[in-house]
Amino acid sequence: MRLFVGAFQAMLFDPEVKEDADRARWEVTPYVNVGPLFFGMSHEQVISALSAGDPTDSGYPAPGEFASFYDAGVTVYYGSGGNLAGVAISPFLGPHVFLGDFRLTHRLPSEIVGWMETGSPGSFRLNQRCEPYFEEIGLLIRGQQGGDFLRSRPVFIGTEWADRFGDLQEGPIPAREWEEY
Predict the structure, then answer these.
(1) Is CB count within 10 Å lower at the N or C end of the chain?
(2) pLDDT (tens digit per residue) in 89-116
């Protein structure tokens, strides 16, 4: 029993975290791309762009499904046509993603709030979990627990999912995103 509890604690409280030097730097163009990933890409194009090999977990090719690339720290979601419609970045393993000069990944909530208070990202709404989302730029900022801290897990969407994307119940982002993190 102690071994199980120890393994559970390690998984829950001490996530694997890549060093900054081991992370790529990606730029975001709202509703267009997240680093090398362009909304509308096919699954094969996503795999090629990530250069991370096959996904470690996948529900593809069903519309509205996903592919997770653990080592890259990226989860992608596919829309109704089977093309890239959403990208979620792990705060612990994913690339550092920037919108302008602000890094969106692996931030404390207080740092995100400070950025929001400057008005830089534009106006926002809060979803049912009080997570901010920005309709003008297709960005939802989720939280992911790691140790004693909650870190930012940005989720970016393409125009296909622009309508009500922050809504947990009726929005287009698959339930898996809300259940897993």
Answers:
(1) N
(2) 999 999 999 999 999 999 998 899 999 8
